[in-house]
Amino acid sequence: MMSGSSRAALAVLALALLALYAVPLWHVALIAPQYPEGLGFYIWVDRMSGDLQSINGLNHYIGMKAIVPESIPELRFMPWALGALVAAGLVAAAWGRRVALTMWVALLAGGSLIGLADFYRWGYDYGRNLDPTAAIKVPGMTYQPPVLGTKELLNFKATSLPAAGGWIALAVMLVGLALILRERRLARRVT
Amino acid sequence: MTVDADAAQSVYVAPGDHDELYAFMSGGFSGNVSVYGLPSGRLLQQIPVFSQYPEKGYGYSEQTKALLETSWGFIPWDDSHHPQLSVTGGEQDGRWLFINGMNTPRVARIDLATMETDEILELPHTAGSHASPFLTENSEYLVSATRFSVPTVQRDVSIRAYKEQFAGVLSFVRLDPEHGRMSLAFQVMMPGFDYDLARAGKGRSHGWAFFTSYNSEQASTMKEIGASQADKDFIAAINWKRAEACVAEGKAKTIPARYAHNVMDHSSGVATTHMQASSVMLNAGDCPNMVYFLPTPKSPHGTDIDPTGELIVAGGKLATVIPVHSFSKMIAAIEARDFDGEIGGVPVLKYEATIAGEVQNPGLGPLHTEFDGTGHAYTSVFISSEIVKWSTETFTVVDRVPTYYSVGHLMVPGGDTKTPYGKYVIALNKITKDRYLPTGPELTQSAQLYDISGPRMRLLLDFPTVGEPHYAQALPAKLIKDRQVRVFAIAENNDPYATKRVQDTRVQRRGTRVDVYMTAIRSNFMPDNIEGIQLGDSVFFHVTNLEQDWDVPHGFAMMGNRNAELLIMPGRTRTLVWVPQRVGVYPFYCTDFCSALHQEMQGYVRVSERGANVPLAWNGPNGTLR
Ligand SMILES: [Cu+2]
Fold this sequence. Notes:
The complex is a heterodimer of chains A (191) and B (626). Chain A has 191 residues and is α+β, with helices and mostly antiparallel strands. Chain A has helices at 4-16, 52-59, 74-95, 98-128, 164-190, and strands spanning 26-32, 35-43, 48-50, 149-153, 156-162. In chain A, helix 1 runs antiparallel to helix 5 (164-190). In chain B, the strands form ten sheets. In chain B, strands 6, 7, 8, 9, 10, 11, 12, 13, 14, 18 and 19 form an eleven-stranded mixed beta sheet that branches. A six-stranded mixed beta sheet of chain B has the order 42-41-44-45-39-46, with no helix packed on it. In chain B, strand 13 and strand 14 (182-191) form a beta hairpin. Chain A binds chain B through residues 51, 53-54, 57-58, 61, 135-136, and chain B through 521-523, 547-549, 595-597, 600.
């Protein structure tokens, strides 16, 4: 069994994920000479916000299809998945078995990785399925934004980084890992 | 005069940096307002007000034409003189800018968040709206006066009957505190002098307004001589709170009047004209204790009130001193009934009873005065072409600098408010002669910027102005810069002819009228091919700019159209009417270089003979032209 303090900490971690309903997960920033104040958009657990209209307007030159958040199913079920993750964390804390803690952290890490992979898939889909009749032919017909980091895309410098929600998720994961290590140490001391 | 070596540094605004102040300069006979940055003197924008402005399609598009309607019909030009920023508590609030149209008397309101003209009110019973528009301390009223007395109400009389038949009318325009909407509250009929300039009181003189007058001789011809005979003319001091009371007591008459009130609706972007049929006229003699004449030497031009509201400074064009009246002495003289007769029912106060001091040796032809808030006044002096700085405590001249040449108004930022910003004074010069590269017989007018932060005035910069810069106002940039509107929300566009989605583009015929519901977005018009237009049709291009991005207007110009272009701000709809004259296929295109593919932003209209067998067709989601 986990120590009482670890169980409480796990419950707090699970509840901390509720913040992800209130803050965006990821941010893509675009810088170009004509946009000194920058363009960009945020990905939330259930929606996208920012300068999508302007970005879509610009992307039509290279034949990228418009980003329409309503057509992205992930934004519909991610809130439920997040809810399930919070509930699972609370159940694990109540149950109190060490293996539950490990499983929950693994679930969070796995979910995050799947999310990033999915983000990459969408970027690939938008960035490689360019309309061949578009006004501007992008070299190699690829215009794929980075998942993490900075990339030059024609006149734009695109930077993709976690937003507040992403950082919270990462912090929860790291504290979760620390809890696992702590519980291991406690377990060795007991035996 | 030499310029200090560090003058350039004082006005240099590095590329990409912003100026410290916005200055709004009247465009004079251009009819418009130009916006400058200070201290750089860079021209930032021109705001069309009383004159058609083809560059923006102002007064050409169907939505803006109504702003230039008057009781005389559509008048596409005027002469704008005095910009005036709205005030609250006697301080600039950065909401609106007002300006007068002199020739066909009008006053306009410009929204400082969009820098667009939102409203124009014609002033009835007025000829030459020169003493206009000046605001009371909380922008309760905008005051205005007639410069050319005329038969009031207008009628067919001999000009020789000037003294008996002509009157000068002062107007009090009420401003709605929330939206700034103007309405003519009441007018005051005064003896037939020329009323020249005005200021409303503030601080202790709040509740009063002051109008200079000349031609108290009441000459009707060769006023150059005839109006310059008397040693003194008058400042008319009017207690507008008393006037309000007399109106409320029923002492005014409602008389016939014809004037237009033009209002731009913010959500639709469409202006409409409301013709008015009457005004409330109060005879000066019918409302005792309301208005008094302050004798003032000689043919006074400007009248300016110091930041405390105590000093009433006149600019006697032909006077050898600057006369300064005291508001509190004036009140005491009124209470003591220290009068020297009356004119047309208006008591004349004794000069000695109201005068606080005379500034000696002010130069020749003092006109206008502004204040720096630290006990100094700055008076423009036309004939000797200089600015004279004097102490408002000792009434003595402390400094003077030449201007190049013939300064009219001058302006200290906030210099007419309770708390002047100070720091600079700008001379607004009538002639420039040799100051710039010559450009044929017509030379630019000019402004000059002086530093007034030290004990001596220092010339920093000359810069050319658009039209004649009669008067100007300036405010700190931070007061309005973050409130500038960037785009109009397309979802809130209530223009009845708006096309908010490309899917809704269409062409409709009703008799000989054809409405084209067109969208513009980088880099196409939709529809961009239209057939089935016939000679005799009137084609209404309703172009909606779908952009929601800052600084992306689209233009629209149609070949052979006897009109101007449209310049459509993001989210707005503008309509251009075209009456095709010849059979053929004619292009239209975007005039504002909007994008890399701007040159591709174009289209064609096919024009056929009347009755031709070409069906109305267009391309696009709903179009039949494939
Ligand atoms: Cu364009």
